[in-house]
């Protein structure tokens, strides 16, 4: 019988990569509970990702990467999260942003090329640190309190960033900073040095192993050429589909755990597994509707983004809808899976309670629900009415 998870695989090449990632996910799943309990960063997972070539998947081929599509990124991220949601979400910021930079050209070419070569040769990773305690998420439009001051040889940057995923392992990263003399905000590429410190503040309900600590910059100097223009083409934010792909992977793991439980659990008052009970089958059916509907949105959005290159800015409502549907439906799927398993699902000896905590984090990743609803409403209002 064909596995439902393989429904969206389109080629032998995609199957080969998917199989490789499933092996990684199985390895990560064995470590996930300990890292979740300790709130520790899974350095060994990232060593495995580096060794497997995962970190270079979205790097352009001209720099030695695989240059995979957004569709395949979604396919692989979903599978990686099946094993460990924290690792998948964390590495998703890296491979997603490389894809974003590849398709938009928003960085100076020589800077992007240097980073790409370092990813391929040394396993370098990147992320952008933009959130702050006072200004909140950058998607809300707050002005950063991190300040960049021009001086001879470059820019002196001082500030503190929150939710800095991958901070324990990165040797370079991007920060957004306000430039008082120009009254504007810009991005800067920073190399980690003695003026960069990580304050271990990340102690949360879910996604406990992403290393999303605070990063403090104490007058860090970065070169003149490390101010990133932010120009380039508008890609509609397609790369952010790495986020719902992660939460769909967690939901798939919860679904499969519940199905295996239903097939095997036989109470002593029942002569066959609980999967035979109409009430359990009804809940499984509800779980499948939520899961399959969300997955269809996710893969359709990724496929359109890949194919319709000139229309990417106009796809923003569809991309937002995919994120909204997946994250909200994933929460429902995990909840339904726990109802099938019953009280045992609350045990920390089983992974369901971790899935339940991790999957809720998707509601707080961009774009947030109210932003998606606002975008969809505006698209509908601005649509030209049909003439009857």
Structural class by SSE content: alpha+beta
* SSE pattern, N- to C-terminal: HHHHHEEEEEEEEHHHHH
- Mean pLDDT score, rounded? 96
- The residue ranges in which pLDDT falls below 50 over 5 or more consecutive positions are none
Radius of gyration: 22 Å
Number of strands: 8
What is the CATH level 1 assignment of the largest domain?
A: Mainly Alpha
Strand content: 5-15%
Domain Acyl-CoA dehydrogenase/oxidase C-terminal: 245-361
Organism: Paenibacillus nasutitermitis
Keywords: FAD, Flavoprotein, Oxidoreductase
Pfam families: Acyl-CoA_dh_1, Acyl-CoA_dh_M, Acyl-CoA_dh_N
Keywords:
388 residues, 4-stranded antiparallel sheet, Butyryl-CoA Dehydrogenase, subunit A, domain 2, Butyryl-CoA Dehydrogenase, subunit A, domain 3, flavin adenine dinucleotide binding, AcylCoA_DH/ox_N, 3 domains, AcylCo_DH-like_C, acyl-CoA dehydrogenase activity, 8 strands, Acyl-CoA_Oxase/DH_mid-dom, alpha+beta, Butyryl-Coa Dehydrogenase, subunit A, domain 1
What is the fold's blueprint, element by element?
Layout: H1 12-38, H2 43-52, H3 70-83, H4 85-104, H5 109-122, E1 128-129, E2 147-151, E3 154-164, E4 172-179, E5 184-191, E6 196-199, E7 213-223, E8 227-228, H6 242-264, H7 278-307, H8 316-341, H9 352-359, H10 369-382
Parallel strand pairs: 1-4
Antiparallel strand pairs: 2-3, 3-7, 4-5, 5-8, 6-7
Question: Could you please describe the fold and organization of this structure?
Answer:
The chain has helices at residues 12-38, 43-52, 70-83, 85-104, 109-122, 242-264, 278-307, 316-341, 352-359, 369-382; strands spanning 128-129, 147-151, 154-164, 172-179, 184-191, 196-199, 213-223, 227-228. Helix 3 packs antiparallel against helix 4 (85-104), helix 7 runs antiparallel to helix 8 and helix 8 (316-341) crosses helix 10 (369-382). It has 388 residues and is of the alpha+beta class. It is 48% helix and 13% strand. It contains ten helices and eight strands. It starts with 11 loop residues before the first helix and ends in a 6-residue tail after the last helix.
